[in-house]
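Slide 14.
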Amino acid sequence: MAEITLSCKLARDYTMENEPDALAYLLIKLVPNAAIDFGSLPANLCLVIDVSGSMRGQKIKNAKQAAKYVVNALKPIDTVSVVIFSDEARAIVPAAKVIDKFPILSAIDKISIVGGTRMYHGLEVGVREIRRGATPHTINRMIVLTDGETEGEEQCLTIARQEAQNNLVITTFGIGTTYNEEFLKELSDTTLGSFYHLQTPEQISSEFARELAAISAAVISNVKLSLNLAKDVHLEELHRIYPTIARLVPELDAEGRIASVMVGNLRKDDKTVFGAQLRLPSRSAGRVRIAQVFAAYSIPSLQLEDRVEKSDVIIHYTADRDLCGRADKEVISYFNQLIAQSLADEAMRQAKAGNISGATRALNQAMLFTQKIGNIPLTRNIEAAVRELKQKGTISADLMKTVRAGSGHTVKIEEEELS
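Slide 15: predicted structure.
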C-alpha cells in the first residue's frame, strides 16, 4: 500500500500533429493515504516579531497574545524560539524544547517597543535559532510579523534563498498599510511559505492559529518533485497551486532533461497540487510519453526513508482538431487560479501607476476566473477594488494588500463538483 498517491493529468490529452511549440498544461497531485496513521512530526518553530516604535499599543499587545497562544499549543516534542527585532535583533527565547512553558511565556510578556525596523537582523538571528533546533526530521518554520517597511530587503531575500535549500519555510504577516506587501510576498514565496495581510491587530491570533494548524498537519517530509522530460520537451514554468501559489525554480541536469525541486512537506488529509507548463516538439500522429514524474519523500514517524512514486505522462498527437479541443475541467480550474493571481497582481501594479482603465480591465478579467473557480472571498475583494477605482480613481492601500494576499490563497477543486 503506497503512502502517497501521485497522479498526473493533462489539460488536454490530444495535441495537433506536426505543430511546433505547442503548450501542454500538466497537473500533478500528491495526496497522503488517508488509511495510514502517520503520527506527527516535531515542529521547529521560530517567531520573529517586529518591536519597532510603530508596533506600540494594540499591535504588540496582540502579537504577544498570539505568540503565547502558539507556545501553549506546542507539544513537548516541539522546539520553539522567539526573536525580536528593531534596529538590532536578539533571541529572547533561544531554541529549546517546549517542556517548561513558564519561562517562555514570561519572556514573551516582557517584550517592549524600541527603535526602527531592520528585519534582516531578525532573520539572521532567527535562522541561527532554527539551525540550533533542526534535526533531519523536524518541520522547520519561521513566522515573521511586521507592520512597516524595512531596511535591507535584498539582504532578507538573500537569506530566504539560502535557507530555502535547507527546507526552511518562512510565512510572513503584515499588519496595517505601511509595510511593503510585494517584499513580504516574495520573501514567503521564495521558501514556499504564505503571505497574510492583517487589517487589524485582533486578527493576529486567529491567523497564527491557522498557520500553526498547517504546521501540525505536516506528516510527510523532504518531498522532492522531479520531471524527467522526453527529448525536445521543455519545462516553461512550474508552480505549486494549492494550498497556496508559489513559483518553483527547479534545478536542471546538464542535458536539461531532468528538472528537480524540493517542495517541502505534505499535510495529512489534504492534497498538494502543482502545475507544469510544457513546450512540446512537432511530431507525427501517435501516442507519446512526454515526461515521467517522480515524487521522493520520507516518513520519519514510520521510519521510512527515500520512498519514491512514479507516474508517466502520455499525450496523443492527432490530426483531429475536435479531439484537441476536449479539456479536463479540474486541470483548467487549477490553472485558472494562476491566471487570476497574475491578473490581480497586474491590476495592483497598474493602479499604483495611476492607470485606472488598465487596472479596471485586469480586475474584471480576474473576476471572471475567480467566479468560475468559486473563490468567493477573492471575488468580493476584487469587486470592492473595482468600485473604489470607479468612485475614487484609486485603490486604498489596505484593499490593495488584501487583494495581493488573497490572490495567493487558492481553493481546492473537487472533481465530483465539476461533473
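Speaker note: The CA atoms of residues 214 and 267 lie 7 Å apart.
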